[in-house]
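Human:
I keep going back and forth on a fold encoding question. Comparing notes only helps if you start from a blank page. Show me how you would write down a chain together with its backbone fold. Write it directly below this note and I will take it from there.

Assistant:
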Amino acid sequence: MQEGEDLILRIEIAPANSTGDLRVFVEVADDTDDHGPRARIRCSFLTNYPQIDRFSSEIAQLMDGETSEAILEGR
């Protein structure tokens, strides 16, 4: 299991408020194995359930080789 400095990709989605918005927490690091410091970014943004449904479909298409990207749109 990737944790801490070994983590390469993390996407966490949680309720943001009582109006149905969702907060997306993202962490991405490079995956080079040069034993040096990794480039890493952490961010968060708001989205909603319809956007999550679209993203889920795009992830499935990506895994099936039907597309080359999956985009989760926020606001």
In short: Residues 4-63 form one domain.
